[in-house]
Every structure is written in structure tokens, then in C-alpha cells.
Amino acid sequence: MAAITGSGKTASGAAASPAAAPATQVPRRKLSRWTRIKQDRSLLLMTAPALLLLLVFTYVPMLGLISAFEHYSIYDGFINSEWAGLANFRQLLSDNLFWHAFENTLVISAVQLVLYFPIPIALALLLSSILSGRVRGLVQSVVYLPHFFSWVLVVTIFQEMLGGAGVVNMIMRQHDLGTWDIMTNPGTFKYLVAAQAVWKEAGWGIIVFLAAIAAIDPTLYEAAAADGANRWRRLWHITLPGMRGIVVLMLVLRLGNALTVGFEQMLIQRLAVGRDASEVLDTFAYYYGVVNNNFSYGAAAGLFKGIMSLILIWAANRLAHAFGEDGLYRK
Amino acid sequence: MPREASLPAAGSLTRRGLLTAAAAVGGTAVAGPLLSACGKKKTSGPGTTSKNQLSQVLPSYVPNTAIKPDVPGVTGPAGVASDALFLTYPSSPVQTVSGTPGKGGTFTAVTPLWAAIPPSSGNAYYAAVNKAVGAIVRVQPADGNTYADKLPPLLAANKLPQWICIPGWNTTNLDFGTAVGVKFVDLTPYLAGDKVKDYPNLAAIPTGAWQAGVWNGKLYGIPVYPSNAAYVATYFYRKDIFDKHGIKVEDIKTTDDLGNVGKELTDAKAGVWAFDDLIGNSAAWCLQPFKIPQKWAADSSGKLYYKYEAPGMLDALNWQAKLVKAGYLHPDALNANNFNGKQRFQSGKVAVNADGTGAWDGNDAKAGLAANPGYNRQAFKLFSASGTPSVELTNPAGIFSYLNKNLSDAQIKEALALANYFAAPYGSVEWLIANFGQQGVDYTMTGGNPVLTPKGQKEVQTTFEFLATATTPVTVQEGMSQLAKDKAAWHADTVKYAAKPLFYAMNVTEPSQYASIGKQVDDTMNDVKAGRKPISAYQEAVATWRSQGGDALRTFYEGIRDKYGTGQ
Question: Among partner residues A73, A165, A174, which is closest to B332 by beta-carbon distance?
């Protein structure tokens, strides 16, 4: 048993950072910057297009954040628009509707974290236990598919199935069983949103976990089985520790995105459940910023969200390090 | 004939729906000026235009008398006429433009389109029109549903085409009073007074339509789809379903009468309900029966009140909440999907719905008949909550095209000559070319009316019309002449109750800081009409609206009224 846990640890370390694994095998040498650049030139060249895209479409547009500190007018441009200082932020922080949207975002995000996050992990574990490659491939394709549907389509499918005139309710009505108004109930909207997210994205989310499972050394299972470990013990002592690094990484990334709980999904269902249940930060910025051409206000709301997200991801990463995991990067 | 139908699509956005939607938001742009309370922007001139100024900038009106409709329009007490009726295209079309208007110039033009974007290369229709006008007008239709998102970048990046069509509802948040001055050509020197007579088809556009294209005392907009008597929306019913249930539509004289037929028409187990949403977005559907103004109205003491504050508003919300509670509304009706709203009506899942008056057209009948051979859409004669109907007219034009300020004097004159061609009236030679292209290629004359060929159906969309349009009569579409007659008769009846609203055809530049104060009221309205919140929540929302700037807007508009009049 001791041997198993010992080697298990090594395996988990390797699986936790598959990318870093080969690097650890190469002995580290102190090289001058120029030698390193020359040595990695083909790798650097390959990352250049991505970096360029990032620069042009992410970093350059960030300069536009200045509009959050202006009374931006499309006719005056960034340079000539009147300077507002922190006025937009003051207005934002005293806006009840904004705080309401913030609260909704946090609640929906928390519900999604609890209901959505574990599901791809569980699915990956289930899938990896299927021996027949053909069945596994089929199941995988079926659960991937909804990822490629637009939110409009997903909501429409839910509406056709569960809506007031949907299949389920029509059958219930015809049998005098009353109706189940899940699509229009503001109180349960957060669960509906999470359910839709699970339906659409859970299949896609398993990919990275499947990769993590695949990276676990199969000899460990053989050794464990030889030592008489049953299925559960192998899961508990080999598979889960092997996935832990990836799970933590995904959790950290997830927390960084916690304030992005879905824009289209909320927009499409806004009338069905009303603003109180469906307004989130993104829809707030849209309705009170973009729609009214009040870009400065929208930018202020967006910047606020960005800063909060940065704090969240930083905190989550710190936490990951505290637990001895890599998180986003190795400390 | 997919003319009308090619525009529509986005739910209520039928051609007339477009007009009326535009008018529902009024000719009101939001900008910074006038109010001293507005500390955020430099003022950019007056909030609107006085009558006296208008008389100096408006083009003269010289109607075309050469083309006679089968049934002329009826003039109502408000002094506006209903649409005339043509049962066939005049057999010998009139020539309204002599020679070739263009001088070989090239114009790029961006227009909204609520249909599939036609191919631009090898498009025989575009080629035919360009050949006829003697210039190259490169139309670049853009998706009408997302047009509002396209405009700010075009304006901000100075990437405007030479000619652009901008629907009125897209101008509301564009600080348009400022935009016109810095981005577009002031057409006053070219068209004011008798100068318009150089362009006879433009001169035949009614004055009211031009007036709605005036900003800050200058003429900027060329009217698109001008109409004399247009309305925000009206209620429709399925006559075939009513007949089946033995419901006499003549007996429906009040909103309560309508509600009372809900029980008879609803059979939830069969998936059939009486009504679709009867209130609409921001009360657009229920303005008429509950006498709610599109924007502002004056009470007996002369004090202005906004539509949110109209007494009828509470009645309307209570009315629908009651119908929802009774289970007479389709469960999906309040989920916002107007697209499906049309489908629900056409497939008989609901028997009564509200829509822009343009929803009643040949394409609708075609779609409805495909679903049900007995399909018969009819509009209710106007009824009301009180029993004495009335209806507000919408702006006489809701969409305008504008010329880029970079154009030279010669280019502006050429563009106006082209606009004159596109604005040729129904019944002219030019109208057929501008709207249908070349006979035998893109259309054939069938039963006395132009009908698109399969090639035409791919190539011909509403494009050049979005640069300039003549007043559009009721015409036969898809060979459905009874529909055209019914529709013209409904318009002739309705115009008797039509009245001009306050600030009719006036472009008022509102202080921009109040641009979003109505949003929370509209949101609450949606909650109340679905029965999610009590009526008191709506009253609270209106109170908030007042304190957030509604009262200041009232003062602002009272100032406009005192200074510039009401436009009525």
C-alpha cells in the first residue's frame, strides 16, 4: 500500500502539469537571454500570431477604458470628450439597479459553481470507466454537441420542452395535472440557468478532465488492482489525486470568470422572468450603457467587473498555492 | 409581391410597422442641450424648430395628379388622408423623370434590411437600376435588427458612406441633433420652398414627412416610406376562428367586450388560446384603446403627462393581468418572442393579437393560408376601453436617408436627382424599375401586378426605397385583391378617429441624462402585465421615474410647447 501511495504521488504530480512534465526532465541550465531566445525561436515564432491577436484585439482596445473616466461622445472621440474623473463610478456605486445586478450575478454564479462545476468531472469519470471505445466515442459526441448550439437555440429547446405551451406542460394539461411553470418562475430562474448551462456546456467541459485522466499511468491501476484495491479505492486513491491539479486550475479559472454568468442567456429570457431575476452585470452594462449610447457608464460598469474578476482570480490563485497546487502558474 | 414583406421580419417590423415603430419613439433625439440642469455636454443649439423657421426650410408640396388610384384615400378630421387603393398596376405607367438623372457618379449607400442580404455581384436588379439612373449606387444593405449597433461605430470612426438610411428609432440615442450638424448635408439650400420643384417626385412628398426630417431649424432627412395616416399598432383577429365560434365582431366595442370572448376562444388542452400579448413593449400595442399617448399629452388644465402617467395605463395593465390570470393568454405570449407571435397567430394558436398595421399583407396571408386554408386576418374596427374610440397618428415619416457632409455641391445635386428617381410614385415607369428591376428578368406582370421571378426573389430586396420613397398606397400583393380592399377600407374607417399627438412631426432634442430613466418603468410594466408584480409596483416605478427626471422632462417639454408650439 505504501508503495502505491508513493508512486501515486509522483503520478499526480506529473498529471497535474502535463505541459511542465517534460521540462522537469531537462536539467536546468543558466542561459543568457539571447541564447534562450535563439534556442526557442521556432516556439516563439509559433506563439507570435497569437500574441499579435491578443495585442490587437485585447490590449489595444483596453485603451478605450479611458472612456469610463470621460463623458464620452461618439462625435468628440476619446481625445476631445469631456473629462469626468470618477463621476461615472460615483453614479454607478450609488445606483440601486447596479447593485441589484451585482447581487444577481454573484447568486447565479454561486449556484452555477455548485451545480455545474462538479458535473463535467463526474461525467469524465463515468466516461473513462466505459471500456468500449465505440460507446465512449458515441456518448462523448452526443454530450459535446449542445456546446455548438447558440443560446437562442438552447433556450428555444427548453421552451419547447418545458415552456407553458411545451411538450411537458401540454401533456400535464391534457391529464389535468396542472402546469409546471419553470420557464417563467423568477424564484427558480437561477437553477434553470444552471440547468441550461449544464445541458449545453457540461459535455464540452469534460475534455480537459478526460485528458487529465488519460495522463495517469495505467500501471498504477494494475498495481492497485493486484494489491486488491476495489473500484472505489482506485478512484479515491489514484484517479482523483491524479486529476486534482487540473480540477484546481479549472476552479481558479472559473472563479476568475465568476462575474461572467452569461449575457445572451439572460437577455433572451429577460421578459420571461422579469428584470429582477435576470439582470446581471453584463446585461446592466448593455441596457444602461450600450443601448442608450452612454458608453462611459457601460465602460465604468465593465471596468468595475473586470477589477472584481481580477481580485477573484488572484485570491483563488493564492488559495491554490496555499494548498500546494500550481493554480495558474507555478510559484 | 414581397415588397412589403421583404422589409418586415423582426416581429412587428413590417413596412408599416417600421413606420409606426419609428413614430412610437417619436421624432425625439436625445442630446445634451437646452436644460441648464444638464451639466454634461455643451449645448448644441435649440431643442427643436419653430413654426416660423419651418416655413422657411420646408419644401413646397406639389402632388402628382397624373396617376389615379382605383379608390382614393379619405381625408379625416385631422386633415390627413388614408392610403389610396390600387387594384392593378396602371397599364400605361407615367414617366415622371425625363432623361437620365445621374451624371455617372458613384455613391455607396448603407441601408437597413429585414431579410436575407441579396448578392451584390451579378445582381441584375442592381445593374438595371444603376443603368436607369445613370450612376453607380452601391447599396450595402445591413441587418436591420442589429442596425442600431452598427451606427455608433460608423459615426464615431468617420466611416460613413456617402448616403445612409437611418430609421428614427435608431436616432433616439445617437445624440442626433449633434450628429446632423457635423456629419450630414444641410439640404435646406437645395430643397427649401420652390427649390424642390427641380425634383418633382420629392416635391410630391407630403410636407409633414419633410418636417420630421428637420433638425435644429435645418432640413437634413430625405423621407423614406412617408405616409399620411399611420398608427402605432392595432388589434387583429382571425375571422375564420371567430366565425367558427359564432362570435360577432360588431359586438366588440370595448376592451371588456374583447376580454369576454377569451373564455370561448380558449381551449388550453388543445393548445389554443384567445390572446397573444395585448400590451406590447412599453405599452405600444395598447395605446389606442386605452387612450395612452405615444409620448406626451396635455390634461384638461394644460399640464403635460407622459404615457406612463396616463390614466389608461393602469386600466390596461389591470386588464391584461386579469386575462393572464384567467388563462386566456398564450403561455409564450409574454416571453417576448414576436417572431413566434406571428406564427402563433398564423397557425391558430391564438385568435387575437396586436401588431403594426403592416403585418396585414400579402405575405402574411400567404403564410397563414399555407398553415390553414381558411386563414383570414382582419383588423378590428377601432374600439376602446370607454367605448368612444380615437387614435393618435404617428409621425408622417419614421425613416430618413442622409447625405454625407463630405459630398461636393455637384454630388449633392446628383444624389438628389437620384432620390427624385427613387421617390417616383406607384404607377410610374420609374417605380417599377426602382422596386422591381427589369421586366422579364426580375419580375413579370401577372394579373395586372408585378410579381417577382425566382431570380428576382433572390436579387430584389428593399434597398433603393430606403434612400427615398414616395407615399405608398395599398396595393395587391400575392394576387390577394380582397385583402387589399379590406385593408384600404379599414384605413378609410380608422382615419375618421385619427388625431395628431402633441409635438407631431417635431424633432425634439431631449437632454441626454434622462435617456435611460424609462427602462425601469418598462421592466416593471413587463412584470405587472405578466402578473408577477402588483399594480402598486408599477405606480412606484412611475414615481421613481418622475423623481429621476420625468418631472424635469415635463418642464422641458412644457417649455418647448410654450416656445415652439405643439406641431398639431
Answer: A165
β-pair partners for B510: B30
CB contacts, 8 Å: A288 with chain B:
516, 519
Give the rounded distance of the alpha carbon of A105 from its chain centre: 14
Interface of A to B at Cβ within 8 Å reads 71, 73-75, 77, 82, 97, 159, 163-165, 169-170, 173-174, 179, 183-184, 186, 269-272, 274-276, 287-288, 290-295
Q: Which residues of B touch A152 (CB under 8 A)?
A: none
Residue B329 phi/psi, 5-degree rounding, is -95, 140
Q: How far is CA A278 from the centre of its chain?
A: 19
Question: In the block, which residue shows the cell 461618439?
Answer: A74
- Which DSSP symbol is given to B546? I
Q: What ipTM was estimated for this complex?
A: 0.81
Distance CA B122, CA B120 (A): 6
With an 8 Å Cβ cutoff, are A186 and B532 in contact?
yes
> In this structure, what are the phi and psi dihedrals at residue B124, rounded to the nearest 5 degrees?
-65, -30
CA distance B529 to B325: 10
Interface touch B334/A276, C-beta < 8 Å: no
pTM of the model: 0.83
8 Å CB contact of A73 and B331: no
DSSP string, B293-355: -SSEEE-TTS-EEEGGG-HHHHHHHHHHHHHHHHT-B-TTGGGT-HHHHHHHHHTTSEEEEEE
The sign of the dihedral angle between the CA atoms of A285, A289, A290, A296 is negative
CB atoms within 10 A of CB A36: 13
- What is the interface size between A and B, counted as CB pairs within 8 Å? 88
Residues constituting chain B: 568
B469 in Cβ contact with B423 (< 8 Å) = yes
pLDDT by residue for chain B (568 residues), tens only, comes to 333 333 333 333 333 334 333 333 334 443 333 333 333 444 444 467 777 788 889 999 998 888 999 999 999 998 888 999 999 999 899 999 988 999 999 999 999 998 889 998 889 999 999 999 999 999 999 998 889 888 888 888 888 999 999 998 888 778 888 889 899 999 999 999 999 999 999 999 998 899 989 998 899 999 999 887 889 999 999 999 999 999 999 999 999 999 999 999 999 999 999 999 999 888 999 999 999 999 999 999 999 999 999 999 999 999 999 999 999 999 888 876 555 788 899 999 999 999 988 889 888 898 899 888 999 999 999 999 888 899 999 988 889 999 999 999 999 999 999 999 999 999 999 999 999 999 999 999 988 899 899 999 899 988 999 999 998 899 998 888 999 999 999 999 999 999 999 988 888 878 877 888 899 999 999 999 888 899 999 999 999 999 999 999 999 999 989 888 887 7
Helices within B9-123 (DSSP H only): 15-24, 51-57
How buried is B127 (Cβ within 10 angstroms: 0-12 exposed, 13-18 middle, 19+ buried)?
Answer: middle
CA-based nearest residue in chain B for residue A269: B335
Q: CB-hemisphere CA count at 13 Å for B280?
A: 22
Q: Does B339 reach chain A within 8 Å, measured CB to CB?
A: no
CB B395 within 8 Å of CB B263 = no
Count CB atoms within 10 A of the CB of residue B384: 18
Which residue stretches of B372-511 are H helix? Answer: 409-422, 429-436, 454-459, 481-494
Picking from A164, A173, A276, the nearest residue to B332 by CB comes out as A164
- Give the count of alpha carbons within 13 A of B443, CB side only: 25
What's the grid cell of residue B139? 447599396
Chain B, nearest residue to A288 by Cα: B516
Q: How far apart are CA A83 and CA A86, in angstroms?
A: 9
B461 and B113 in contact (C-beta within 8 Å)? yes
Q: How many whole angstroms separate alpha carbon B318 and alpha carbon B528?
A: 8
SS3 B279: coil
